[in-house]
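## retry 2 of 3
previous attempt timed out at serialization; input unchanged, resubmitting
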Amino acid sequence: MISFRMIAAIVVLILLATGLYNTLKPLPAGLSRSAPARALYDARLIADVTWRSATGEREQNHGIFDEVFRLIGQARKLVVLDMFLFNDSTGDDAFEPLADKLTSALVQRKQKIPDLMVVVITDPLNTVYGGLEQPHFKRLRDAGITLVETDLRPLRDSNPAWSALWRWCCQWFGNNPEGGWLPNAFGEGKVTLRSYLALPNFKANHRKTLVIDEGERLRGLITSANPHDGSSLHWNTAITFTGPAARDLLATEEAVMKLSGVPVPAWPLPKGDRQEAPAELSGQILTESAIRDAALDVIGQAGPGDRLDIAMFYLSHRGAVKALKAAHQRGAQLRILLDRNLDAFGHAKNGIPNRQVAFELKQAGIDVRWCNTSGEQCHNKLLMLRPDNGEKTRMLLGSANLTRRNIDDYNLETSILVIGPQRADALSATAELFERLWRNGPGSTPVFSLPYPDNADESRLQYWRYRFMEATGLSTF
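## retry succeeded, writing output
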């Protein structure tokens, strides 16, 4: 007779095997892509910044979604949009209705040009994993727009302690947007228990990209910004460009459609940018762990006298932290600007992981400052190396935080590595933006950044809590 202990041991072994396999299994085709460096044309940086005036009034300089709306308004052939957060949940009424504006822009353009091919790709978090009807998505579908809610199941599991059990017990039941009875943690409405059971898998299609026709060329846009009302005050960056790199960007979105079981159509592509010509800048489209490899390579190239600047919402990846300390030891001049990790859509946070990583970096002698936010998030994902010897500048920008979950092949992410002379418009604008945010500290108006002591947490207990969360995946970062 099989004993209870033997049954328990078999169950534990099955769960361990499930967790191990789904943490290490092969990635779906087309992911973790490192495209060739391509000529980059008409590259422009766009930055969103929010601050408080001397009288305490909130002020902002935002343009990322203005550019998105402009591009949609002139499209005639193709719009492929991939956005992580695409909903109207907010902490209060002070936010811009980005989700409604984007939905209306897409629907109106589709109605004006019926032959326009529009594909919108997004993350199932917006429907709380199928447990809530998303009115914006219904409007898109009713207008004849292809909506792809990314199937996350083929991805690796970032939190195997839960996902191994979920794959056996819960994933088979699907979900029901009309069967909710529990309060929605992200906004209005009711959701099912199945929504909450899916949530601790802690993985996402975290990309923020746009590929669109502009005249006789294809334009790409890569950003850290979401069309999410509650994110409308965040600090973000974006880069927009034309040239062959835009076609590489489109290819990365084909991979998401395929893993989600959606056929890839024959794209109505313009013909004006097929030939590469000499260009001041080159751009390399990167996804998933290819972003990690590029980031570590850029940091690894920082030597004596080189300037390495980072503005990051989450910084916790152990390889990146070690690489930064090594760059500092080689004599590179590091400046790291971090979000305080204190606010998330009206909810208080405890500062993990940035305060703990800042403590470690500060101990190593690295200069760290905090974005002076007031309810919003410093949501940039920006890394820039300016060599002291005048060699080409390298800038990495996109959706990916430097965390295990973001760059170790768990999330879907997109960034671009831009290489060229510092005088190039996109690179000089980025350098000027960082200087502005870094130097406008206490004593200046407005105050964009704060010194390390203003948000320091040097608790050893909290530090090792961060290390445990980063190593195990039991975290949202």
